[in-house]
Amino acid sequence: LSLKFGDIDNLKGLVIRFLLTTSYYQLSVQNWFSLHRLQLLYNHSIQATFNATRIYAPASYSYHCEHVSSLQRYDALLIPSSANDLSKLWEVTFIDFQIQGFNIQEGHFAYAKDCASFFSPAILMGLVMSLILLLVLAYALQMLIHLKSLDRHYECKASPAYFPQMKDNDMGDEKEPLRSNGNESYELRNQQFCKIYI
């Protein structure tokens, strides 16, 4: 594929050439295309050549990436083809890059295979945080399951309790007078107190 800039003043002689290859892989049982090389031409002479890495997709798909660049901060998918080449003097960056070389229908891109990895740093951090939260939840559930119920045991013991004289005739059979220094008191023999153990 050749990208030409037409009659734009400073870019009139600049051409960006994408060299694509297609291959059949038995494991996936389909054809895949890959961007093999990128060339920069100016006035019909090659100025720079970059080898492309990890730019591939099924032949019926397109390839999409937020940044395709020769710079390290964008993961450097374009690598200068030779140390002696002039490619090192060029910095190439495509933003919102999408390409499809084969099986194009009605001039529209097919479904895109994105360059984002399944295990990007953000996804890995999310998985780690989810694992930590699951461990905390499992520990809390385990503590709840093994929590002992509050069993109450009552132990009642008879003990004499002394009260001042009461004028309740119904309690007469349960009272026995006690003699002391002029005061008359009664003992409730059946009076009990309970201790509660938790």
From TrEMBL:
Species this protein is from: Trogon melanurus
Name of the gene encoding the protein in the UniProt record: Atp6ap1l
One biological process term in Gene Ontology: regulation of cellular pH
Protein name (record): VAS1L protein
Transmembrane domains' residue ranges: 118-141
Pfam family, one: Ac45-VOA1_TM
Family assignment from sequence similarity: Belongs to the vacuolar ATPase subunit S1 family.
Domain V-type proton ATPase subunit S1/VOA1 transmembrane, residue spans: 117-154
Lineage: Eukaryota, Metazoa, Chordata, Craniata, Vertebrata
GO CC terms in record: bounding membrane of organelle; cytoplasmic vesicle membrane; endomembrane system; proton-transporting V-type ATPase complex
Topological type in the membrane: Single-pass membrane protein
InterPro entries per UniProt: Ac45_acc_su (IPR008388), VAS1/VOA1_TM (IPR046756), VAS1_LD (IPR046755)
